[in-house]
Amino acid sequence: MIYKLENEQLKITAATYGGELHSITGKKDGTEYLWDGNPAGWKYHAPVLFPIVGKVADGAYRIDGKTYYLPQHGFARTREFTLVEQTGNSLRFQLTDSRETLEVYPYRFILENRYTLCGDTVTVSYTVINRDEKPIYFCLGSHPAFFCPLSPNEKLTDSSFLFEKEETASVLVLNENGCLRRERVPYLNKEREIPLNRETFAKDALIFERLDSKTVTLASKHRKDALCVDFHEFPFLGLWAPANGARFVCIEPWEGHADYEDFTGDFREKEDVLCLPVGERLTRSFRIRIQQD
Fold first, then answer.
1. Boundaries of every domain in the chain
2. Residue 205 confidence (pLDDT)
3. In this predicted model, which residue has the larger pLDDT, 224 or 161?
4. Longest alpha-carbon distance in the chain
5. Measured between alpha carbons, how far is 31 from 34 in angstroms, rounded to an integer?
6. pLDDT score at 151
7. Which ranges of the chain does DSSP label H, i.e. alpha helix?
8. Alpha-carbon gap, residue 218 to 237, rounded angstroms
9. Worst-scoring range by mean pLDDT, 11-20, 195-204, 247-256?
10. For residues 26 and 290, is the Cβ–Cβ distance under 8 A?
């Protein structure tokens, strides 16, 4: 089921399947900013990543001596959510543990995806509620894909990422199996801009940790409109585009990351995993601002 919200500047739609955004449209000229989910390029739009971000080694992880299996980025993005609240400017979807989820993730939880529309900004909020009798452990993130270039008449090289501040930063490195190596590779040296071309993501995602910047903008040389993502509540930021050349890039705020390639311990000991006490809730939000010309 698809639901929509709109105001004077933007129109958005979101679906119960995956509880994900499907569209962000500027009303000034009808520009669509969010990837359309064409499966020839990538079948998602802006999925939530839960209870893992990235991959666990060999698709398996361990809790209390028992082995569980999860696909990349977890199961939430392929589950049917329920719309539990709709207001004049927000939609709230909910996913609750079930017999099927307990077979692959042994915790009782509620996951809520909320989308709030205010002026030129869409706020995406994820809330995890522990309804178990023990602490629960998880990672949490988002994977929104944005048309790039925004106009089909432009080339990818007309676009770039612009950070709020000059950054001197390294990137985390993925191995051929999608797990992290124990190394950092220098990437930015007092720079704000990442020019885009087909080589930018030749080694998969660019993964940054605890940048000084709190925002990153997707901009074009030939357009005055731009898209800005405020990710300040998330310590990791992934930037990615597919090798198949589909016309989009992803700006991904993360709490957590893929397994390190040498990690064989209990999931509860995983670096940067989140722990939520009994009866507690955790919310992380990011904002997508559409700066229309």
1. 2-291
2. 95
3. 161
4. 56
5. 9
6. 83
7. 99-104
8. 14
9. 195-204
10. yes
Q: What pLDDT was estimated at residue 9?
A: 96
Q: Is the pTM of this model over 0.85?
A: yes
Work out the average pLDDT over 77-92.
98
Distance between CA 23 and CA 204 in Å, rounded?
Answer: 25
Phi–psi pair at 76, nearest 5 degrees:
-60, -35
* C-alpha 280: how far from chain center: 23
Q: Measuring CA to CA, which residue among 219, 237, 220 is closest to residue 228?
A: 219
Of 94, 85, 138, 131, give the one whose Cα is nearest residue 112. 94
**DSSP of 211-266, one letter per residue?**
-S-SEEEEEESS-S-EEEEE-TT-SEEEEE--TT--SEEEEEEEES-PPBTT--SB
Rounded distance between C-alpha atoms, residue 292 and residue 86, angstroms: 26
| Cα distance between residue 81 and residue 94, in whole Å | 5
Mean pLDDT is lowest, of 73-77, 80-84, 223-227, for 223-227
Instruction: Write the single-letter amino acid at 113.
Output: N
> Is the domain 2-291 a CATH 2.70.98.10 member?
yes
- Indicate the pairing of strand 226-230 with strand 215-220: antiparallel
Specify the 3-state DSSP secondary structure of 123. strand
> DSSP letter at 180?
E
